[in-house]
Each structure stands twice: as C-alpha cells, then as structure tokens.
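Notes from the 1:1 (GR / supervisor)

We went over the backlog. Supervisor wanted to see one worked example end to end before approving the batch request, so GR pasted a single chain during the call. The sequence is below; no edits were made to it. Supervisor asked that the structure be written out right there so they could see what the output format looks like.
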Amino acid sequence: MKLFKDTNNEVFAYELDGSQDHLIGNKTPITQEEADALIAEKQVIIPAPTSLTPSEKLELVGLTVDELKSLLGVQ
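Structure output shown during the call:
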C-alpha cells in the first residue's frame, strides 16, 4: 500500500498498482511508521469501569433516561 496524509493528518492507503492514484490529490506521502504514529495519536483509550449504574451507562453514550424512553417508545 502507498500511504499518504492530508492537511488534517488523516491517513489514507492506496493500492500500489496505481489504480487509485486519482484519489491521492494533494496528499503527502508518508512511511508506515509515520502512519502508525498518526493513527495512535488519534486513538482515545477510555478505561472501562468495573461497574456502572444504568444512568452512568446512558451518560457515556450521551443519552438521558427520557431520550432512551423516547427511542424505545416507552412512556
């Protein structure tokens, strides 16, 4: 794979055979090591708590109890 990054440091991989070269545009070529480092920077690791209340679980996904009830069609 040919690896590139854009101005936002998003990593792109294209086939070596040139079949996707039209997609490269003004991206910058990078090495596998650079790609790995950029990907690692963007990964956020959230430690999993051992036990959460239902309300805490909803909060983690950005929902309120009322929003969940509405999604489920429960009054």
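Supervisor's comment: The two ends are 53 Å apart (CA to CA).
Batch request approved.
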